[in-house]
Design a protein that fits this description.
The complex is a heterodimer of chains A (63) and B (401). Helices cover 24% and strands 22% of the residues of chain A. Chain A is built from two helices and four strands; from the N terminus they run E-H-E-E-H-E. Chain B is globular, with a radius of gyration of 22 Å. In chain B, the strands form seven sheets. Chain B has a six-stranded mixed sheet with strand order 3-2-1-7-19-18, with helices on one face. In chain B, strands 22-23-26-25-24 form a five-stranded antiparallel sheet, with helices on both faces. In chain B, 25% of the residues lie in helices and 31% in strands. Classes of the chains: A alpha+beta (63), B alpha/beta (401). Bound molecules: flavin-adenine dinucleotide and iron/sulfur cluster.
């Protein structure tokens, strides 16, 4: 599973970070950084939650 | 085990709950019934990117067609639920009764209208895509002056988009302090200042007595005797839950569909999103939340509740959270402040309009407000989830810089 963020859509509101801080981090420059672009299968549920809860629909999972 | 689930309301809470059912492996029939003709779309862009003309409506779809199709939903759009009989387990759709197995109510809310403007006078409200396109068309036609009645978050966003398109805006609020009901006096004033700094003519503490005229030549008569002229009038004075179709159904209605703390409204019936009222186990308060994230979360929760036994059922205890985009500012609030809570800026400064502030009451952290401070709001939301005390929360924030 690969995590892909559309940075044109992302508004850095850090919701994904609240769901999975090990994968998503909004830094002090207000930009989202993906810390782990290929999280393990055990993180799938959290990643799908992040996809559903991102208000900008900026996150995609590519298998 | 259930054979089928019927969801009424094909918008955010309804669609996300259907997706949750499939993700959790539910293989039965899922009927998703909605009275709007459009494919399910997202509302926040209607007062932001779509209204601004930056996005075409297709971009606001909740789920793209290629992801919707594999879910195998029985999607019935342009169709309205007109009645319900909980005891008989029957739903009425466009006047025709049909049985249901499990029912999820997600009919949301609609705009409150200004008394005395329901007639032929063209005042706009903003809830649906069609509403948005009507206001957008008026802006495209070169509306130069706009009056926004009601300085709530939707009104504030409409004002900021209109200003961005070169329209001059008068924002009218009956209460003496705009946004104070949600943010309290002090922080409400900080948000109000952003509007004034962007050239909005903000008039607070004065009601509207009437609106007259026709599009392009409207007169808003204020209670203090003054008149404001406008090409276009938008009213944003809150919403009312869509529960009329549930009168006499056997459900308890009280400014929303009343649910237990697990989102169950009656055996086999759950509710989620803007229409649902439940008792928050965290605070013991009866709540109905009108925020995007709540519709998603409660939709997921209610869907799972419908498949769970009473023993398995979990309470729904979220920390409410919303955002609002106004000009180049991102406002976010987590938690529920009371107007008289203590407020402390813990990061940045209100002068810069870039800050995070904590709200507290009786030794507890109650809410976190951010302006262009998303990371801090989300961290604060974590503190609220843990139920951290005021002093401990301040200690955490002290380590942020
Ligand atoms: C312009 C705008 C901007 C917003 N911006 C933000 C924001 O920035 N941040 C934020 O947190 N929240 C925002 N919100 C709030 C957020 O969009 C709502 O909380 C969310 O849409 C609620 O979802 P819902 O599915 O519960 O209800 P709704 O979105 O209201 O959907 C209910 C659906 O049910 C349909 N329906 C009603 N009655 C029936 C019936 N009898 N039969 C069949 N169908 C029926 C309705 O037509 C509608 O399609 C905004 C809302 C609007 C209108
Ligand atoms: S939730 Fe979405 S918009 Fe928010 S920071 Fe994450 S990717 Fe960006």
């Amino acid at each position: 599973m690969r995590i892909v963020v559309d940075y044109d859509l992302c508004e850095s509101n850090a919701i994904c970070m609240a769901i999975a801080p090990d994968v998503f981090e909004v830094r002090d420059d207000d930009l989202l950084h993906v810390l782990n672009e290929a999280p393990g299968e055990d993180r799938r549920e959290k990643m799908e939650e992040a996809v559903q809860r991102c208000p900008k629909q900026a996150i995609a999972i590519e298998d | 085990m259930r054979d089928s689930v019927t969801i009424v309301g094909a918008s955010l809470a309804g669609l996300r709950s259907a997706e949750t059912l499939r993700r959790d492996g539910f293989g039965g029939r899922i009927s998703l019934i909605g009275d709007e003709p459009h494919q399910p779309y997202d509302r926040p862009p209607l007062s932001k990117q779509v209204l601004a003309g930056d996005w075409e409506p297709e971009r606001a779809l909740l789920t793209p067609a290629e992801k919707l199709e594999p879910l195998g939903l029985d999607l019935r759009l342009g169709v309205r639920a007109t009645g319900l009989d909980v005891a008989a387990r029957e739903l009425e759709v466009d006047g025709v009764a049909e049985p249901f197995d499990g029912l999820l109510i997600a009919t949301g809310a609609r705009c409150r209208t200004l008394p005395g403007t329901g007639g032929p006078v063209a005042v706009h409200t903003l809830r649906t895509l069609d509403d948005c396109l009507a206001i957008r068309a008026a802006l495209d036609d070169g509306a130069r002056r706009m009056v926004v009645i009601g300085a709530g978050f939707i009104g504030a966003e409409v004002a900021s988009v209109a200003v961005g398109r070169g329209t001059s805006v008068t924002l009218v609020e009956a209460l003496p302090a705009p946004f104070a009901r949600v943010l309290g006096q002090e922080m409400g004033a900080v948000v109000a200042d952003v509007h004034v700094a962007n050239g909005v003519d903000l008039r607070c503490g004065v009601g509207v007595s009437s609106v007259a005229g026709e599009p392009g030549a409207m007169t808003v008569a204020m209670a203090d005797g003054s008149d404001v002229y406008a090409d276009l009038v938008v009213v944003g004075i809150g919403v009312v839950p869509n529960t009329e179709w549930l009168e006499g159904s056997g459900l308890t209605l009280d400014d929303g569909v009343v649910c237990d703390p697990t989102c169950l409204a009656a055996p086999n019936v759950v509710a989620a999103g803007d229409v649902a009222r439940w008792t928050d186990p965290r605070t013991g308060e009866s709540m109905r939340v009108e925020h995007w994230d709540n519709a998603v979360e409660q939709g997921r929760h209610a869907a799972r509740r419908l498949l769970a036994t009473d023993e398995e059922a979990e309470v729904f205890a979220p920390v409410p959270w919303f955002w609002s985009d106004q000009y180049d500012r991102k406002i976010q609030l987590a938690g529920r402040p009371h107007p008289d809570d203590e407020v402390r800026v813990v990061d940045g400064s209100t002068d810069e309009r870039r800050f995070a502030a904590f709200y507290g009451r009786r030794g507890q952290l109650t809410a976190v407000l951010g302006m262009n401070r998303p990371r801090q709001v989300m961290q604060g939301r974590g503190l609220l989830e843990q139920g951290v005390g005021w002093d401990d929360a301040l200690a955490v924030a002290a380590g942020w810089d």
